Amino acid sequence: MTRITVLAVTCLIASGLSVANAQTADSQKRPHIIFVMADDMGWGQTGYRNHPVLKTPNLDLMAANGLRLERFYAGCCVCSPTRASVLTGRSPVRSGVLTHGYALRHQEKTIAQALKAAGYVTGHFGKWHLNGLRGPGVPILAEDTYGPGHFGFDEWVSVTNFFEVDPLMSRQGKFEQMEGDSSEVAMAEAIKFLEKHKDGDKPMFAVVWFGTPHAPFKALDDDKTPFGNLTADSENHYGELVAMDRSIGTLRSALREMKIADDTLFVFCSDNGGLPRIEPDTVGGLRGKKGSVYEGGLRVPAIIEWPSMIQPRISSYPACTTDLFPTVADLLGLPEDVFVKPLDGVSLTPLLADDIGPREQPIGFRFQKQGAWVDNDWKLVATHRGQRNKFELYNLKDDPHEQKDLSQAQPERLAKLQEAYQAWDTGVQASYAGDDYAAGKLTESDPEPHFWTIDPRYKKYLPEWKDRWEYRSHIQKALKN
């Protein structure tokens, strides 16, 4: 973009108009968009947050040059639901993705579908985990109707779930044996996609979902060497993050070499809070870990970099993965019918230009028997969702570690937040039942989540894969049964 265009677009963002309007006037292409997401990386696991052993020089550079979001929330405290929230802008329960291994409903509308219809070329690389399959990541089958290609991705090199060093992946249904660290493998494929299409007439949308640092942990020898004094799991866990950070640097360098960095909106985040039993701590001292609706299970590292548009700074504005689709739609001026409504996310477009006031729409969470409601500085926690008088109340500004329950001291505020949360929860339940869809109901049953080792479509591959270290124990168990 020219300097004049950047100034014009910044003014339009501040006034709530779309970037597409400014760029059309200057005959500029719309921005390329890249979403990158770690798998089980905690809020405290970056160098810029002064982690005691982990260094993340490339994420640190990205944070220093972009918008560092200190109160960014995953859409859920486990992985598949958060992935659904990224794609739809909605609470994952609305879209039928209740926990890990659930499939995204065909009746949902995704950001990839919206961008493809708007003229983008789209690609997915890495972990998918929205096709109803559990167990370590295996290549997605060409005939899988819940794979990336059925949700708007033109090209994909993907696996069903978490994946490790030297992964076996699927290139649009064709299996390929890859070599190297899993993050670098996925990123290399994404960069090939960008190089392939950078000179074309379509802007690019790439989604890179790592399998790092999800268990089982297996890092390259050089990457885990600095952590040799830790337990084996912690050593490999942090070694995987070293490689993941390096892949971020590879992407940032590639964007600059391709001369498209200034015109690329690049978002990095994690899919849920950090893991327990990893030392040093993964969540920066927050309460809770993955699977919990306390801050440590939901708050994740997040950075948005767009060199021509975003002035480097740190923001404490509460934001969420559900905001990504609405933000992109707002920037591009996409029509409202690209969404299934109601949305739970809001556009962060004004935040890209400057700090803004309090968030008008609270962020709701629902996972199994837990629930949470984040309304700026205040947070309601339900540890036994559905039961009255089982709510905790925290002021996150004064008590970021959620140590002092104010539910007894602030009964009026508790009642107000509880009423708002329960109204939202009732609406989410109606969405889950299918009320939001054009038909007013579910037109097909949700697939039952299951392990791929008992899926008839994968049966023929079990003998071939039984000696692969990442599959061995799962296949042995299936064959015994």
UniProtKB/TrEMBL annotation:
The gene is atsA_3. Residues 1-22 form the signal peptide. This is Arylsulfatase. Belongs to the sulfatase family. It comes from Bremerella alba. GO terms for molecular function: arylsulfatase activity. Transmembrane segments: none annotated. The keyword Signal applies. Residues 31-333 form the Sulfatase N-terminal domain. The keyword Hydrolase applies. Keywords: Hydrolase, Signal. Its EC number is 3.1.6.1. InterPro entries: Alkaline_phosphatase_core_sf, Sulfatase, Sulfatase_N.
